[in-house]
Amino acid sequence: MAPRIVYSVGKGGVGKTTCAAGLALQASRERLTLVVSLDPAHNLGDVLGLTLSGDPREISSNLWAVEVDMDAAIERYLADSTQRLQSMYGYLKAINLEGYLDALKLSPGIEEYATLETMESLLSTAEGRYDLVVFDTPPTGLTLRVLALPRVSLLWGERLTTLRREILDRRQVMRNIHGERKYVVDGVEQKLPSDEKSDGVMGELKDYVDRMRRLSALQADASQSRVMPVMNPDRLSLFETQRALETLGKLGMPIGPVIVNKVGLKPTDEETVKDIVRVLGLPARTLPYTSAEPVGIDALQLLTGKLDFREWIPGQRPA
Amino acid sequence: MEFELREMENILALLLFSSFVGLPSPPSDLSLRLMPHMVRELHVMSRRAGDLDDITGEIAGMFID
Question: Which of A23, A182, A262, A282 is the most buried (most CB within 10 A)?
Fold first, then answer.
């Protein structure tokens, strides 16, 4: 069975890693749980008081944790892309593909695609092995772009499929008139595909559209995934959360309630929480400010006594 | 030379502002996936780029293709 997914989303320093770890710990009492840090500046290990790596480590009964090495993930993504291009090896000389791939490492969008592929591959390995996957996400900007990718890419995939279909239709007409058309590249003669089955481009587009459609549907399915926004009772945190939730709402993602962390430091905090509820239009749950940061499994156990994290688990009935 | 300059100016403008005239760039991930299947198109593009300064050749080519 596919695992349920929770995304812990928030501005840097608000406590999203602590909340992700708290949720994972509480969930692990009833289900096999994997907590994943996708943040390039990891601190999941710091919060748990343990050393983590790119391989899931069992940190308590039913609970595994992993810190994804994003640089390695980008390298892997590029290596996979290069391998896909091997079939046109003869071309590397002609258009300097090697130089192009070097430049790709720094191109906009690559980090987002590498992050999306990492999430996808983690979810497919998690299938049947874990009941719940908790993502501690990178800074808000990157997270929003990654989560928007399936929708944007689906739109592109669908438009290009329509265009490709029109090209193939016309090729068929030409084939009916002139017979099968062939072309020669680097001395090798090949047939020009004119139907969807034999056309590699169409095959690739179909796979791509299916994949992006599946991901978009998964994101919008309240029985499968949920966003857990974490913020502090201050205006900057509110503005950023408001913008983030607006974008996530457009993607149809199930959101909330919002966790307002570190409440009680300022006398006005209670009023700010009321404002947050009003502005965001979401219920809020609060966690009090504590002078000592909750680090380690025992401290996180105490945290789960202060807040019932189960309500963020998709498909879970409210307690 | 005048023709070459004009073409170079056009190419630069097209690369920079194509999205404003209805030629947006698709996700680079999708382009990378489709690239191995479009060797012929790349070949044509690369030949065309080379032929840009030979407009007579291009026109003559239309009758041969």
Answer: A23
Residue B39 to residue A91, Cβ atoms within 8 A: yes
Look at chain A and count its residues.
319
C-alpha dist (Å) from residue A195 to A81, A89, A180, A199, A235: 26, 25, 12, 6, 57
What token pair was written down for A167?
Answer: 């090209």
The overall pTM is greater than 0.90: no
Summarised one tens digit per residue, pLDDT across range A89-115 is 555 555 566 666 667 667 777 888 888
Residue A227 has pLDDT above 50, yes or no: yes
Binary contact (B37, A201; C-beta < 8 A): yes
Which residues touch A83 (CB under 8 Å, ≥6 apart)?
none
- Indicate yes or no: CB of B26 within 8 angstroms of CB of A88: no
- In angstroms, the separation between the Cα of residue A59 and the nearest Cα of chain B is 35
A319 pLDDT tier (thresholds 50, 70, 90): very low
